[in-house]
Amino acid sequence: MSETTLPNSGSNGEHVRAEHVEISQGGASTIDATTVNLQQGGVGSIRATDVSVNQGGVGLARTGNLRLEEGASAFAVVADDATIGEGSSVFMLIARQTSGDVQPVLDWRAAAAFGVGLGLVMRLLRRR
Question: Which residue range forms the structural domain that includes residue 63?
Fold first, then answer.
């Protein structure tokens, strides 16, 4: 693996595999790396040991350590340790440890309840 830098380019849709990935005003569909730094960009899915996002967005992040800094957002996060900065947002957060301005729309309990409810509705609709 190597280091990959994706500056403000039309790199959306790429699958990136590298030891260290830096994205500034660009994006990728999927990243597999050890370290990811995202500055004003977007990524569909990240699998990495350490992820830092500043004024960017991530669809799904599976990571050991996540830092969402100023103006960052994530749809779904599965992390060992998540630090959510002021002005950042997370829709669904599953983490062993959290710190910062943590206010997910769905935590693991709400996500589990939603899944059970959705399963019951689907079962009822199939019987008709």
Answer: 3-127
